[in-house]
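Hello, quick one for you while I still have it in my head. A protein chain has come my way and I'm curious about its shape. Can you walk me through what the C-alpha cells say about the fold? No rush at all, and the record is pasted right below.
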Amino acid sequence: MSKPKIKIGFLTISDRAARGIYEDISGPAMQEWISKAVKNPYEVVSKVIEDEQPQIEETLIEMSDELNCNLILTTGGTGPTTRDVTPEATTAVCERIFDGFAQQMRTVSLRTVPTAILSRQIAGTRGNSLIINLPGKPVAIAVCLGAVFLAVPKCLELLDGSIIEIDKSFVSQTFE
C-alpha cells in the first residue's frame, strides 16, 4: 500500500501582491526552497491574499480543515506595522503554538540581520496541519526554513503519521 501524498500549502500575505501591484516573489521562493528540501512527491496548494486578519484566518482554516494540507507555510505580515497581522491570525486558528520554531528562526536570523528581532513569526498546529509563519523576503525565508525544517518531518509524523522525506544536507547547508 502506498503512503498518501503530502500536501503543502503556500500562503503569501501581501496587499500589493494580492492586488497585482507587484509580482509575488516570496511565495515562489518558499516553493523553490521546499522543492529542493523535500524528496518525496507532494501536492501544492498556493494562494495570495491581502493583509486582513479575517481573510488570513479563513484561508488558514480552509487550507487545514478543507484542503487537508499537512504543512502550511505563510510569508509576509510578520513585521511591526499595524497591517502585519499574520501572527495574530495564526494564533487565533491554532490549537497549540510551538514557541521553539519562532525562537530558532529569530536566533539564526539575528546572526546576519540585526532587524530580525522585529520579526514576529510563529508556528503552531491546527488539527493535523503544521503552520509556520515566515518573513516576506526570499533570503530570510531560506534562512528561517533552514533553521527549523529538520524538525518538520517528526512533527508531521506525530500529528497524523505523515512521512516526509527531506534532503538533510540541503536543509543543513541553508542553516549554516
User: Anything to note?
Assistant: The chain has one domain: 6-175. The chain has eight helices and six strands. The chain has a mean pLDDT of 94. Helices lie at 15-18, 26-37, 53-66, 86-93, 99-110, 138-148, 152-160, 168-175.
